[in-house]
Amino acid sequence: MPSIKLTELEMQYISLFEAVTQVEAVDCVVDEECNRVIFVVKRGMAGKAIGGDGANVKMLRRLLQKDVDIVEESDTLEGLLRSALFPASVKSIEVKRDSSGRKIVVVEVPPEQKGLAIGRRGRNVKKVRLLAKRYFDVDHVALK
């Protein structure tokens, strides 16, 4: 994993997140375009972070006045993409380089889950692109 530098705002969001959820946040990504904050937590901690019936996420949404997404960390690109696309299932992940050397990832999902993977107005695929770039220096992610 690369070393991530957090802004003061991101550190404040992490502090609030940890106070509300009692779960340690590994990272925080502010996505102004989609008016949301993406928190990355340790493996196996997403359920606790979300809380019973989504109570923690609902409270964070009210406090931050932004949408809140929670993704489990992974040491592998495949693991991170699977976590970021959950609950959509991932059939395969292929990493390529285009003619200019850009790192391209093609993620295949079942046809009936493609809408779920993309999300409303492309929110989910944008989240995947942000995290893949931040952690694995991926230039583009495409869904198939």
Which radius of gyration do the C-alpha atoms yield? 15 Å
Report the CATH architecture of the largest domain: 2-Layer Sandwich
* Large-scale geometry: globular
Q: Percent of residues in helical segments?
A: 25-40%
Going by CATH, what is the homologous superfamily of the largest domain? K homology (KH) domain
Secondary-structure content class? alpha/beta
Topology:
Elements: H1 8-21, E1 25-31, E2 36-41, H2 46-50, H3 55-64, E3 67-72, H4 77-85, E4 92-97, E5 103-108, H5 114-118, H6 123-136, E6 140-143
Parallel strand pairs: 2-3, 5-6
Antiparallel strand pairs: 1-2, 4-5
Keywords:
3-stranded mixed β-sheet, alpha/beta, 144 residues, GMP Synthetase, Chain A, domain 3, 6 strands, globular, 2 domains
Question: Would you give an account of this structure?
Answer:
The chain has helices at about 10-20, 45-50, 55-65, 75-85, 115-120, 125-135, and strands spanning about 25-30, 35-40, 65-70, 90-95, 105-110, 140-144. The chain is of the alpha/beta class and about 140 residues long. The chain has two domains: about 10-70, K homology (KH) domain (GMP Synthetase, Chain A, domain 3); about 75-144, GMP Synthetase, Chain A, domain 3, CATH 3.30.300.20. The strands form two sheets. It has a three-stranded mixed β-sheet, sandwiched between helices. Strands 4-5-6 form a three-stranded mixed β-sheet. Helix 1 (about 10-20) packs antiparallel against helix 3 and helix 4 packs antiparallel against helix 6 (about 125-135). It is globular and about 45 Å long. The model has no long low-confidence stretch (mean pLDDT about 95).
